[in-house]
Fold each of these.
Amino acid sequence: MIGAKAYAVHSKEEKLGPWSFERREVGPKDVQIEILYCGVCHSDIHQARSEWGPARYPMVPGHEIVGRVTKVGADVTKFKEGDLAGIGCLVDSCHECENCKNGQEQFCKKGASATYNSVEQDKVTPTYGGYSDKIVTTESFVVKVSDKLPLSGVAPLLCAGITTYSPLRKWKIGKGHKVAVLGLGGLGHMAVKFAVSFGAEVTVLSTSANKEEDAKRLGAQKFVNTKNTDEVKACTSYFDFIVDTVSAPHDYTMYLRMLAVNGVQICVGIPPTPIEFMGFALIGGNRAITGSSIGGLPETQEMLDYCAEHNIVSDVEVINIAAINEAYDRILKSEVKYRFVIDLATL
Ligand code: NAP
Ligand code: ZN
């Protein structure tokens, strides 16, 4: 086994703190990575605090991992020592079911292994995430990272990036579409960057009036303060798509009414409580509400390549790992602009 250092949380009430544990030895198909940066996703908070149901402790959160390969197994073909590499929300799956074969490993019929708060394919060994100095992962779940982009800004692409890129691609969103991005946080600001890059007219729907300038800088044409009822009314039946990135309970009925006929609200945010809305908000306009879960490995690589080609990275605030609990508090106050990224050299 290989000794590893991390920040972990031991129960839903506790704060994160330093922890030592062991990673597996590098197997024939494994890659060992020295983690350089790891993004802080709101999903880390939901899970550290068991907001989506009982979690596994001790938990080492973190699924926006970028680092350098330090060792490869005998059968590894994609990587060599010294390469840059990334790991997102998944570290393994069955590789055999139709969803895995289609590159949608997140829907593996036997259950994918998430990067943390999950188990390896033996269904026993716990997985530990990226708030750590190193990780060992099967090479097919490791993606290639370009050296053209700043690595701290690349880390959030591994979750916030792919989670917003994937539904925009699936729904072929681009020129001629009016798209609203609901919530300007980690996922939201990436959704704005991608939708703008794909040619859509983008509006940010936000509860934070102080984010207007940033929304425009990111390329959005319009900004709506959703606490202002007149501004909300003016959006009635306007958008073709809403990309909903909100992490907390919110008024789905109000937002559905902003969709034009045949409009689609794509939910990527996962509030801890069930979603509720008035049926009439759907019926009046043949509107649809749908969801989207991260993205598979081939699409994650496609997204990273697209970002390298178009110079797209996340806007980040790099933090010392000792500031992680404070960072969680600031995320909950919608104060992050727009993703905290841990510099693992501080561990
Ligand atoms: P984040 O950085 O905290 O951003 C969420 C944003 O939602 C906030 O910045 C805020 O934007 C808005 N918001 C917060 N509370 C609100 C409320 N009560 N009403 C309306 N708006 C509110 O979080 P994130 O990391 O982007 O993650 C967002 C959600 O996506 C989380 O639930 C996360 O678990 C989920 N997620 C899903 C997937 C997936 O595969 N589907 C992947 C990753 C994350 P404003 O200040 O602009 O209002
Ligand atoms: Zn995430």
Note: The mean pLDDT is 98.
Amino acid sequence: MPSAASSSHRPHDDVTSQQLVRAGSWTVAITGTMIAALLLLDEPLPWARVLLNLGVGVMGAVAVLLGHLRRWHQAGLVLVWGVWAVVAALSASNGGLRGPSLLNFPVIIVVAGWVLGARYTLWLTGATGLLFVVFVWADLNNYMPPARYGNLAAYVAYLSGVLAVTAAATLLSRRSYLRRVREAQQTASSLATRDAELRKLLRAVEQSPESIAITDLEGRIEYVNAAFLTRTGFAQDEVIGQSSSYVSNNGMTLVQWVSLRDTLARGENWVGEQVNRRKDGAEIVEAVVVAPIRQPDGHITHYVEIKQDVTERRRAAAEIHRLAHFDALTSLPNRTMLVERLTALRWRGGVGSQPLHVLVLLDLDRFTIFNDARGSEMGDRLLQAVALRLSQMLPAHGLLVRVAGDEFAIVLHDLGLLPPQASRRALAFAEQLQALLLQPMRLEGCAEEAQLGASIGITLYPQNAADSPHEALRRAGTALHRAKQAGGGRSAFFEQGMGEAAEQRFQVERSLRQAIAADELRLFLQSQVDVNGWLTGAEVLVRWQHPRDGLLAPGAFISIAEESDLIVGLGTWVLTHACALLAQPAMHERRLKLSVNLSARQFRQTNFIPQLRDILATSGADPSLLTLEVTEGLVIDDFDEAVAKMRELAALGVEFSLDDFGTGYSSLAYLKRLPIQELKIDRSFVHEAPTNADDGVLVEGILSVARHFGLRVVAEGVETREQADFLRQRAPDIIYQGYLFGRPEPQEDWLARLPASNAA
Ligand code: C2E
Ligand code: CA
Ligand code: CA
């Protein structure tokens, strides 16, 4: 809607002018034609005037037509100038200044003003003045024709028509004028309201405590409010035109940035939290809303960023979290944190794939007595000192908690998949804790050193899918109580049986560690003979001469040793002694071979090859007389690497035997690629081979595979003649090992029998 104040306003844009043009055009068209028609009645016929009046009518008709085409300006021009020109000609033909037609001019001038605007009044007045000057000049020089009255009736009709139009126009324009005034008043008042509204909004934005920035679509700042400037420490001219992320030293993460971009691209509001920086570098945490600003037609032109300073709130939240999760005296996490951690470690997988964790509950013995005797201040210091000591023991990922008073808890993560293993590790850890706490502590402001033992309760966690932190705490508490009842300074498992088993295995592990150094290991040998009874060598089988329990078979300690690096030390001991034996002339001269069991962990040691090379070199043993017995389990995990390593060892001259063949995967594909020279048929097959058809077939199969690959075969556990015969009939070059030919015996005894057995 064009407003009244608009400078580009043209009369025809408004309805009143258009109505005027239309009314004028019709009046002129009708009256012009009518007068021309009336003039036709005159005698003699005044042709010139008929034509001129007809001209007026035609002009009017043309104006009517243009008005129909809504070409109001052209219609106005034709109406005003066309009629003026024809009337001028009419006046000239009818006495000039003396003629009656002069009356037309004021009418035309006034109408021109209404229809085309004030400028045209001036133009027409000028043109009419000029015309009058010409008329005066023509009159003075007698060029003017005499004025003749035309048809009086026609003239009256014309003038009354003009008068009617004039009156109507005056009326219309007055109404229009009043309406415009009213409109203008309304617009002015609505503008004033809107202005007040805008000012209010502006003040609200300006003075908002939240920092507000408006950016263009590229993120360049166009406006910032006072809060923005105060908070960021920038001056207005330092930020306008800058990128918004630049001035807030934006702490958005990449993820946030992508989400912001995508959200805005969808035309939605983005809400998030950013760690931004002030101009001086100080951090502010801000809750941020970025919203697109839409125009009425819906397209987005700007973004508004509203940021709320939540630094204090975050700091308070962190402090509340700290207070709620940490103990004030020792700064250790508290019970809440313990429960949260245990919750996070809840049951995930099935049996065998669920890593086991351990909850250790520790309570100082006689703390109350200490506290009463030395005062609570000393008591506090002691607790702090204990906390420090315990935290030094804590493994990575472990959690140490002060539960209450003198009670601490420790969570040990991932102690294995199997309960026996996990509980043994837990017990070892508990022993270390107790030893550590027994070391005297020097407390500030206390002359004597303090020394307090501790009781410990242990439970494995989680035990099943339903196990919960509170259940675990209850179990550990029960165990702790039991440990206290037993007199303090002890560790107890909730799972009593497990505790005993773990305790036992733990004891074995501990004494085995000393056994190697204390020279308690013994080398036993079990003969291997060919079908003719000729001795070919022996398998080396370790024994432990336990100071209290007597001679122990490997079953009692090998599997425990294999769970830790103990097996490496043990294996090295066996290899060293076996090689020393091989180097003895009694063995060497008879070219008797020794087979040594090699455990996976030992084989995987990075320095195993150089170590064996060393042992061979130091002992002077002939490598070709040494056979290393490996199991399929040793190669299966990383087949290629194992094969590569075996090849390197084979290059030293040693041979390989695949032990317990038939009990494992026994994949022929593997067998083909393994650099081995010997297969050992497991004793379980040998036992049943003559009596059980299935086992018989299996042994036959193994023998034919061995023949196919050109492998030597040792049959283990041969106890009877039948077994020996069964084997010999199918493989004449088989080697026997079993009670039928000799039990494992101490190497000295075995050596002592040598000449006799070989002579047999
Ligand atoms: P293995 O390698 O299969 O050793 C053969 C086992 O069968 C030996 O048990 C041996 O005494 C037993 N045996 C031999 N002939 C007969 C028989 O006719 N009947 C019966 N029922 N058993 C027979 P041992 O000495 O108790 O060794 C058990 C396992 O301990 C060995 O099984 C081996 O895996 C492991 N082991 C023994 N010494 C060592 C060692 O020095 N290092 C490693 N890593 N493991 C060893
Ligand atoms: Ca063996
Ligand atoms: Ca075996």
Note: Residues 1-9 have pLDDT under 50 and may be disordered.
Amino acid sequence: METKIIFTDSDLDIREAVGQAVALLRAGELVALPTETVYGLGANALDPEAVAKIFEAKERPSFDPLIVHLPSKTALREVTEIPDEIEKTITQLVETFWPGPLTLLLPKRDVIPDIVTAGLQTVAVRQSDHPIFRRIIKQFGTPIAAPSANRFGSISPTSATHVSEQLGGRIPLIIDGGACSRGLESTIVRVSPGPKKPLIEVLRPGPITEDDLKKFGKVVFVGRNAAVEESAPEAPGRLASHYAPRTPLRLVEDPATFTPDPAKRYALLSYRGQEKDGYLPLHDWAKVAVLSPGSGRLTEAGIRLFHLMVQLDQGGYDEIIAEPVPDRGIGRAILDKLRRASHPRKA
Ligand code: TXA
Ligand code: MG
């Protein structure tokens, strides 16, 4: 299959892109679309045959459920059944963070096919705020199931080029909306009543942080994909290898513990690129890539993380050594990705 890429540089291009994307979605085909977090591989969420093509193109195991993107806030009530006891909190979260990078886990209605949720009774939903994604889903008028547009187990794509490297030849169309403005996948939460105030469990840390969420309830971080792991015992080991580049990557939490092998070429994935952080002077690095040059801003590091991981992966180094970033705000999500990419892999 030939994969077409449509750029969205002008108004005319955008109209063309939206028209072609919607036509393919209506025909039950796949389209890779830009979102503010990472690129998604979209299909009509209400059409099980279209959704099956996502699993095939990504080589994704069928026990790993997909995120459903909604055309509007009101569509939430059409695809989910919100329990009365969390209705208020869900409404507050939706009003505050949608459209945006917050995904909610809620009991699903029958319109959502089982293949989307891998047989679970809950569905993960969000509304993207990417302008091109919004135009496409508005015109399509139907929820779009879209996981990240990478092959299963690889790094999520933050550019159309990266999508094309992962899925070129397997899908008919990629809409190029430029680099993703967040660069990290959405925060996934599950809400329950809790003893005193609502409990907000974070299943995947992301751009919406603990600070953002704590006004709405007690925030706790739980193992990623806890819901899936409960229902699919084979999941944990396999999902632990997410986000991994092919080149071995190692998160070195303390520079004193790094003893280079003189026969190897190492690349350093540095946070700020500053000598005083202790990593730069450790070794004569074959390459140094910096997440947030200068002052060290975690939002910037988040935007650049996957982009630089892919770039370093293509450099032919023996190993990528990653510096930790501060464990606060979006730093928590960045550390989570680095730990999951790190070898030997943590379960
Ligand atoms: O930012 C994002 O969320 C991107 C963009 C494209 O929207 N999407 C994304 O989708 O990251 P994906 O499929 O790569 O990650 C979704 C995660 C998976 O780890 C899946 O296991 C989990 O959400 N998930 C989906 N439905 C679930 C459910 N019902 N219960 C528990 N986990 C679920
Ligand atoms: Mg993914």
Note: The longest strand covers residues 102-107.
Amino acid sequence: MTSQHATDYDVIAVGAGFAGLGLIHYIREAGLSIKVFDKASDIGGTWTWNRYPGAATDSEGYYYCLTFSKEILQEWTWSERYPGWEETHRYMHFVADKCDLWPHIQLNTEISSADYQDSSGHWLVKTVSGETFTCKYFVSAMGMISQPVIPNIKGLESFNGPCFHSARWPQEGLDYKGKRIGIIGSGATTVQMLPVVAKDAAQVTVFQRTPNFVMPAVQKPMTPEWDKEIKDNYDQIIEKCRNHVFGMAFDSPVGRDLADTPPDEVQRIFEEHWPRGSFRFVFETFDDLLSNADSNKAAADFIAGKIKERVNDPELADLLTPKGYPLFAKRPPLDHGYYEAFNRDNVSLVDINEQEPIVEVTATGIRTTENLYEFDIIVLATGFQAYTGSQEALTIRGADGQRLKDKWRTESGSIMGVFVAGFPNLFMITGPQAPFANLPTSIEQNIVYITECIKKMEQEGHDICRPQQQAEDEWVAHTAEIHNQTLMAQGDKVHSWMMGANLEDRNARVLIY
Ligand code: NAP
């Protein structure tokens, strides 16, 4: 089909985080026009919303970046191993300024719907304020962990003080000095937040349902020598990321399985790697930790031993120790003093799984089956509707008016995380079943793929790209087959967002590749 109608833009994308910024660069290089909308008042995506104290990358900063400009890679210097949100945000401004991306971005603009027009083959995009725009290619650049999950707890709206999701920490800041804070949830967000807020708050209480395997981050400042080493070797670092199963600049596979290693040697290798920090503990020790249950158990036991060493109260240490599920069935957080925070007098843990489930939020605090805990501030660090949430938050209709949200009710299928059958000329950057990895690596790979696809269409005169259901079925089956070979497949037991198992209203499914 050849369309004769002009559109406002070749490409419209939603989301001005890493995905939107990178997309502008590549689409502009391809000679096409693009507009990126974002409802936020600034660029940054995750790094403009998540302003909670302690928010930082869990990837090492020097490969948590876009790689299209060698000049930027050489000019930008990270101040520490895991940059905080402020620094990552500054980096994104630096990229936007340097590459003159601003003219393609419209902030403070929430998109309400995007409709594929069967008659013209174009997309009609509407904003909440009533503006409309048309484009040939509609791209979701909304991020895979961006739509907050608000827990279904009775009385939540009745609390007298500030009560908000962690990803909506007040943008203007919040004075929590001397205040009593309740945090519901104990995932990666709480693991980062707790040690920082505990320093100034009067009291912090964490309501934990499932304990996590928390591994040391081992923060350290950048030094001139380290910076030089990185910059002298950037090509190899990027190459490593692109070839690593989790998109990280790690030295793995290591060519060694725990199953074939004598127990003494296993402990020696674990002890040697533990103080180095990062997910390297999992990926640079043995190659079978995610695939062999016994090997995984050995790593899990090692981590449990470390929790005992660091938490003074043995009962508390036991409550903080994961049980009954394998390492990486939930995405493990990285630690900047989480366990040590529980040794402080002003920090406590409430086990809401077995000991005292939450009954309700009251005007003054949180009531469990056993106690009423009074607070000045409540933080809902309760996670996200990963991969599908942001696309489902607006109305996206494909061919014949089919809604994406309806299509994804029982199975959130895609082709490579990029296409959805029935949604012509729709592209997603890290949609469901895209590679689960260091995000800038997956994001940029998806962008390059999408841009190449669009370029090919433009050069060869194809107006419409129609993703086929058969290809989607094959990708869904392939993704599930690989996932089922790993222990991540047990994520449905423990509400893992990687399987959408943290959502009350739907069945678990494989969301990651
Ligand atoms: P999360 O890992 O999904 O943790 C949510 C927490 O809230 C869990 O402890 C969960 O308990 C609890 N929860 C959810 N609903 C609840 C309810 N109704 N009642 C009681 N507790 C409830 O969310 P997150 O900590 O925000 O992290 C999500 C992901 O974002 C991370 O895994 C990571 O990929 C990303 N993240 C990254 C960074 C970083 O890289 N720097 C930092 C923060 C987050 P259950 O475990 O029992 O479900």
Note: Residues 56-58, 145, 151, 166, 184-190, 192, 209-210, 331, 352, 381-384, 495, 497, 502 surround NAP (CB under 6 Å).
